[in-house]
Amino acid sequence: MARHVIGPVDELPPGTRKFLEIDGRPIAVFNIKGEYFGLMNRCPHQGAALCEGPLIGLAQSSDPGEIEYTKLGEIIRCPWHGWEFDVRTGQSYCDPRRFRVKAYPAHVEPGASVVKGPYVAETIPVKVERDYVVVEL
Amino acid sequence: MNIQFRESTEAASPVTAKTAIADCDIHPARATRTELYPYLAKRWQHHLEIYGVHAYQGMMEGPPYPKAQPNASRRDAYPPEGGPQGSSLSFMQKQLLDPNNVQLGVLNPLNTGQGIRNHELSAALCSAINDWQIDKWTSKDKRLKASIVVGNEDGMAAAAEIRERAGDKNFVQVLLLSRNVEPLGQRRYWPIYQAAEEAGLPVGVHAFGFGGNPITPSGWPSYYIEEMVGHSQCQQSALASLVLEGVFERFPKLKMVMIEAGFGWAPSLGWRLDKVWQRLRSEVPHVKRPPSEYIREQVWWTTQPMEDPERREDLFDVIKWIGWDRLLFATDYPHWDYDEPSRVLPPGVSEANREAFYLGNAKKLYGIC
Ligand code: FES
């Protein structure tokens, strides 16, 4: 599993996402309230660029009339047909047994460790004194 | 929320790699509110500014925003130069026509002049949208062909518009909507069928429209999802009306295209009509043959929304009843329920049927060589 440096932390503030291609794969990295998540940017349904959809919450209901809205900003909704996936895990909500999106672990590493490797920096000049978002795949 | 969008969506794959297709349901949009003004007499421009447009519509004034996605459209289909999805030819070429090797694209503009209570305004707007389709789309890209939009509630005015455009190669069909003031087989709409038959143009019936009636026969539903499935119920009653009022009998060369309401229900509607017709035939003696015969001879179906049953054999059974020569592939671009050409047809289809499904049927029906 290779670790890819995809940018300094301050370039991916909370609520934003970054699109990139790693090893020919379209990937999106999200900062959700300070946590980072990587997701394959291709919908398993008909192949839309999934991560260009809106981040919404999860509406669930135990009984008609009872609505619970949780996971705010953690559900990605496909820009084409609206299928919903959990950004943390890639799990599908409409057909969890048949579909999932590949999720890639992402986290923050200090510049000092990134410089030493074994990391691949995605055309980003790395400075020791900064923190970087790193994706594993 | 700060969302970064990539500069472009999918990198366009080489055109030659993909099978040539026809896309029989594309929705072009206006970039600005006043984009039609150059095609409208001053009188109507002023009228629009002063009085606006009044549709036949119960419960609400217009389509509720945003219907599952903004403008009911793909979120990745905003043109880079701004404006709503579907309003830029160059972006449509880049996102839809070129990468999917679309050889024929049939334009069906919605929210135009149809279903408007002021029939003169309706006719003026429809004529304007037809001029606009030539100017902005079909004259600029030969792959694109337009539908003649007509003011459906005034059959005579609609027929006049059809006759005026007949023979113009920019147009390949007449466009109606499924939700009208009355079921589509009724007499007020006959002049439309007569003019279309004379012109040799198929009549497309696209889901949606303003008829003032609820989308379901049992009243106004609570949810958008009910409206989505209601489109097929609505098309079914339109089709039953066309058969039972004798439209197909009276206009035997008329070809109808059912657009965007599915087709999985076609066999059961045919079976049911045939069965009751055997018993109640004397009520409608002008219907001379079993209803399903008219349907199978005079009706075509666009695929979006493509039926997607669990077992693909079920899909093939339905298509067998309809006929592999009757389906017309459609994406519904840029709307959110867009179908991706390479992903809709399950494996196990013969080369000849695939070719007919993606291109051949459409070329034949619309007379494109
Ligand atoms: S392509 Fe994503 S939901 Fe259909």
From TrEMBL, chain A:
State the organism named in the record.
Answer: Bradyrhizobium sp. LLZ17
Which residues fall in a coiled-coil region? none
Work out whether the entry's keyword set contains GTP-binding: no
Enumerate the GO terms in the molecular function aspect: 2 iron, 2 sulfur cluster binding; metal ion binding
Keyword entries, A-Z: 2Fe-2S, Iron, Iron-sulfur, Metal-binding
Domain named Rieske is located at: 3-115
Taxonomic superkingdom = Bacteria
This one is known as: Rieske (2Fe-2S) protein
Do the record's keywords include Chloroplast?
A: no
One family name in Pfam for this protein = Rieske
The record ties this protein, via InterPro entries, to: Rieske_2Fe-2S, Rieske_2Fe-2S_sf
UniProtKB/TrEMBL annotation, chain B:
Q: Where is this region: Disordered?
A: 62-89
Alphabetized UniProt keyword annotations: Lyase
Asked whether the keyword Lyase is assigned, the reply is yes
Q: Name one Pfam family in it.
A: Amidohydro_2
What is the protein's name according to its record? Answer: Amidohydrolase family protein
**BP GO terms, sorted:** secondary metabolic process
Instruction: Report if keyword Transcription is assigned.
Output: no
MF (Gene Ontology): carboxy-lyase activity; hydrolase activity
Instruction: Output the Gene Ontology cellular-component terms.
Output: cytoplasm
